[in-house]
Structures are given as structure tokens and as C-alpha cells.
Amino acid sequence: MRVDSPVSTLDLNANAARRGLAGRMVIASLLCLVLLAACQPEEEHSAELFVFGTIVEVKLWGATREQANQAFAEIQQMFQGMHRDWHAWEPGRLVDINQAFTNGQPAKADPDIVEMIRKSQSIEQRTEGRFNPAIGALVRLWGFHTSEYPIVGPPPKQAEIDAILLHNPSSRDIHIEGLQLSTDNPLVQLDFGGIAKGYAVDLAIRHLQKMGISNAIVNAGGDLRAVGRHGDRPWRVAVRKPGAGILGAVEIRDDESLFTSGNYERFRQDEQERYPHILDPRSGWPVEDVASVTVIAAEGILADAAATALVVAGLDNWPAVAGTLGLTQVLVVDESGTVYLTPEMEQRVEFSGDIEQVVVETPTDL
Ligand code: AMP
Ligand code: MG
Prior knowledge:
alpha+beta, 9-stranded mixed beta sheet, 3-stranded antiparallel beta sheet, 10 helices, 37% helix, disordered N terminus, binds magnesium ion
């Protein structure tokens, strides 16, 4: 910042009285500049918050230092609350709700949990049960209610899987009255692992916008929502590659979420066999033919749920399920590294390197 010009334009060779006045003016102008600097929008502010077992990077463009500090503190607090309230196995509100369901009792939720259930019910229906956050009992049976990966050992017995499938747990078994939840199905156990990050970034971006911040990105390890721009250019984000590294880059248009789900992230390892953490709720077994799915959609919660659902849909069915969800920007990577993507997604991704690509239309008349 230039602070020299106001001083140099003052006539410092005038009489003593003028010099006194000039001195006061110099101090006053310097003070103004210092104060102005504190409330002027600077370029970029960023913070790394450790939540949901990952680092969430929040970047703001054009906010003041005060706004940024306030935003980072408030978002950190929001995320800590979500971690506590939405956790599938650490003590908190969701564990209490699941316990009440097991006991056949009603449970009190909060507006965010109710919203996640409502959204889930609709997505579960539209994906014909491929996305189903009521399969917490199955996820637990497979040992995926842990932060320690990989899990080592054989899969559960088929009889144990069948005992859960027999009850057909579904988010649509949950009745909602205000904040009161109840179900007749004792095998309904909520697990928001497939949408929590998506809804968290939605709430964080909504909070920033309420604070008057219109250029921001909230990035939870490559799963993100971004609004506005990074100065004179769009926000530019990476598309994760199964395993490690990046497939390419995408420039965000105004307000978008980009989420990737993969069967490479968390898994159970049994000698040569690997069992990934995304389960097909209809069979009770992990899904395997897709290595990763990346979805771009406006809302984080939809992009997150859809990425999980399309992994379950697999190579044959992802275009139809994407069509039902109204998604046009999808990229799927199979186990051999071949990329299948919609024409709209092909327009968006700038690939790093030579990657075999197959463009696939999604049905739009569903
Ligand atoms: P994501 O990384 O967003 O694909 O979410 C995966 C997590 O969602 C898993 O670790 C489970 O907690 C949960 N999950 C697994 N399979 C499903 C499914 N078919 N539908 C909904 N949630 C699932
Ligand atoms: Mg997901």
C-alpha cells in the first residue's frame, strides 16, 4: 500500500503554525490509512480447519481481515457442532436417535438432521435405493464405523448380512413430525457418511453469504462448494484421481459443488481381497466395478449423495441414475483407469495428461 503521497504533497516548509497543523494532518492521514487498511477488502484470506477427520480449506476473496477472522471462527464452530451431532458412532445426537430407533422409541432431531433425512428420502427414492443413509447397521457390520483404516479381516457372514436385509431398512421408514422422528423399523440406523460433507459445505457457504461474503470456496479434501470468483478469474479446482493425484482441473461457474466418491478411499482388506466402504444397500455387499465418480451440481448435498449413488449404480447403470437425478455433469473412472463422462463434463474438465475417455449421453427423457 502506498502511504507516501499524502505526506509528500504537504508543504512542509511553511511557518510553525502551519507546520503544527500539517503535522497533525499527517498523523491523521496516516491513522486513516492504517484504519482503512484494516477494513479494506484484501485479496485472499484462507484458513485450514481440521474437522470430519480431514482438513477443510476455506478461502475467501475480497473480504476484510475482520470478516475473514469472524467467518473462520464461526465456520470452525459450526463444523465442530456438525461433527458432534451427525457422527454415526461417537456419542452425540445421531447416536441417540439410532438408539431410540432400536428401542422403538421416538427421537428428537434438529432442523439440519430433519433436512438431511428429507433430502435423503427423495434421493433414495430417485436412485431406487442405491443411496440409502438408513443402512448404518450394514456399515457397522462391515466394520466401517471406525477411523482406523484399512480394516483387516474377512467379510461378515452372509447370514448376518441377510438378517439386516430382511428388514429392508430405508430412510423412507422414518416419520417426521416437526423435529420428532419415529420408525416402526428397528433396523433403521442413520449413517450420514454419504452426505454429511455435502451438507456441511452447503451450510458453510450459506453462512458466508449471509455475512456478505460472495466469493468463497469451502474445500473438504477435494469435495467442495465454491461461489463467485477468485478476483479476475474463476475458482479453479482439481478433480481427484482414484488412488492418488489429480485427473485434471475444472473452473467453477458462479456457484457449484464438485464431489468425488471412490472405492479406493476406505476399505476392508482380507488377504488378496479388498472390500471398499461403499455398499450396495440391496445386496449388502461393497460395490467394485467403478473406481471413482465425480459429480458437479449446484448443491453440495446432492453432489455428495449422487457421487455415492453412482458408484453403486456401476458402469452399466450410472447414466440412467444420473438422468433420474437430473445430473448432466458426471465423470466415472473404471478399475482400468478409463474415464467415462457426459458431454457437459467433457466441456468442463481440463485433463492433465493423456487419458482414455469415452463420452456417454445421459437419458434426459426420464
Ligand atoms: P462417500 O464417501 O460420500 O461416498 O460416502 C461413503 C460413506 O457413506 C460410507 O463410509 C458409509 O458411511 C456411507 N455409505 C456406504 N454405502 C452407502 C450407500 N449405498 N448409501 C448411502 N450411504 C452409504
Ligand atoms: Mg457421498
